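Section handout 9: paired folding examples.
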Amino acid sequence: MHNSYALEKKLLKISVYGAVMFAVTGVIWGYLISSQMVMFDGLYSLISVMLSLMSLFAAQFIHKRDTKKFPFGKEMLEPIVIIIKYAVILLLCVTAVISALDAILSGGRETNVGSALVYSILSTVACWRVFVYLKKQKQGSGLIQAEANQWRMDMVLSAAVLVGFLIAALLSYTRFTFLTPYIDPLLVLLSAGYFLKVPVVEIFKALKEVLEMAPDQLIQKKFKSVIDSIQTNYHIEDSILRMSKVGSKLFIEVDFILNDNSKVKTVADQDLIREEINKQTKDLSYKKWLTVSFTNDRKWVN
């Protein structure tokens, strides 16, 4: 667990340092060349800095043990932080869409296309590198996944800037040069509009965890298969499986209903079953909170 936390902390720091660099570069560069698109990219990175710092502090707090105040752990903080992160990104995207529409209706905006092209090339390559690095890490942390998503969004945003300003550069050599002032706000509109989907989806997923809803179907099927196998092998009458995922922790509750034919007779038999469940699901990259109960009376599992 310590090594996992150390890696998580390292990755979050890398994300913070990278976001600081892009934030300063994007905002200043965008202001100097009068590009709303480049400034939007920089502001996104600036917000990413604050959100990444929040993730770093949250990770430190979550991994600081305090069983008296938090007997079930602090993993609930993880989806709450993720909701805040994506809510801020959603607000930024909505604001950018409104600003871009206003610019288009006002006749567009003149931009230094050459400088914008240089920025977009550097930004696209650098964001891609950070995104790939974060995705390669074997981490079950929702915070790291959220960071990777942020960099993926920034990479797509920078790539959109690159393509758009390439088109603007080509238009400047044609009779359609009058369209170039509309390229910058149009890029903002398309990019921000596209990004609206990501925070909405991620907020919904995080809300499922806050509400302690069931995890993904693949995780449920994995445990259901293990439990069904144990039920058959030990001649157990019935079983009830309840699961929820909160952050990087899986809460699993299994109730086995026994009868006279069941092979579970002693506490040692019960512990053996617990060990089987743990071993057969160890490939899942989550911390497991496993509770396994045995009863002869169905009323205790309702």
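Moving on to protein 2 of 2.
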Amino acid sequence: MILHQQLTLSNGTRVVLVPHHETEAVTLMALYQVGSRHESAALSGAAHFIEHMMFKGTQKRPNTMAISRDLDAVGADYNAFTYKDFTGYFIRLQSDKLGLAVDMLNDMLYHSRFRESDVEPERKVIFEELRMYDDNPMMVVEERMEEELYRGSSLGRRTGGTVETMTGISRDDLLAFRDKHYIPGKTVLSLAGRFNHDEAVAMLENTFGKVAKAKMPTPFAPFSAAKAGKGPRVRVEFKESEQVQLAMGWPAYSYADPRLSALKVMCIILGGTMSSRLFMQVREKRGLAYSVSASSNPYQDVGNVTVHAGLAKGRFDAALKVIIAELARMKDKDVTGEELKRAKEYFKGKMVLGLEDSSRLADWYARQELLQGRVETPDERIAKMFAVTKADVRKAANDVFRRSMAAIAVIGPFKDPAPVAKHLEKL
């Protein structure tokens, strides 16, 4: 069992300590409860823009080179990421260099200069990032699906914003948004790997613990299925291509929903592995796709299940028919005992192997503390998964795979959504 300790710094910043002394590495991660769902329509992309600006220089380290040079000199891994519900930064390095990680993250996150001379060039970098995604139908199709699935909610907006919204965001907008959300009450620090407990806590208290307290901002507006409207909602985007990208989505369970474990097991059986039902029926037996998968993605108030596939243009209808049939079978019949056992062992194996890495450990504990306000150990999560029954899996399928709640996006050489919608009559 991996033991952890939760504590709070003097200013209210939450900390999770996860000692793991069978490694010579340590990871410091800082998560902030701010992402694209916390933005107004006009500020769409601001959280992602701020993430980029944190690497542009501080008073102590005046430019990107100075930041990278200090970290590269010790062979550190470092990066950042922005999602719909949080933003994160991490540094993974040798355990005896922890002081550098603490000083660096604190310096970047609270002393970045956000110079106008850096804002404008970085804006252009993000423009190119957005265009890169736009040129990748495999990524765009899920964005289009989520726009339909979460219609009327900030969850439906793309994390990076658009060229239009990014053009309108000023330096002052970025600073105001940062100061509103990068506050102790919305921060979780996670330290995982080899470290001395007392020394680590003192370092964090003397850096992150000195950040001034601030008023908590207004919470995000929860997703409303009524505002999204009844489905099925089908969006077809014409693109002359040999492969058709398909994304099908349904609203599902939140982080705190006790049915989430059953949903995850269902997704593994349906399309989570190379021996899953969709993979075998669509790709291996019929050669209708190169890739096909099913996954679940929870948020604090809602979640979704997504089925994603890259399908042969000339056999799109045949492939969609098989996919819908597999969804219906998941609703109509119990999974087999062997399928249930394999899915649980797959989940356990992936978790055990993944948590060998200090950065994955840090992420595991930090996300839970930030988004759920409580921490479940890996052993507790595995126990929940192993308690899932065949009936639980079938119930989850019937809860989720409803025709009236479906949102579908298709990118390929088609223009009419009606044939796609017609397939859903079998669901």
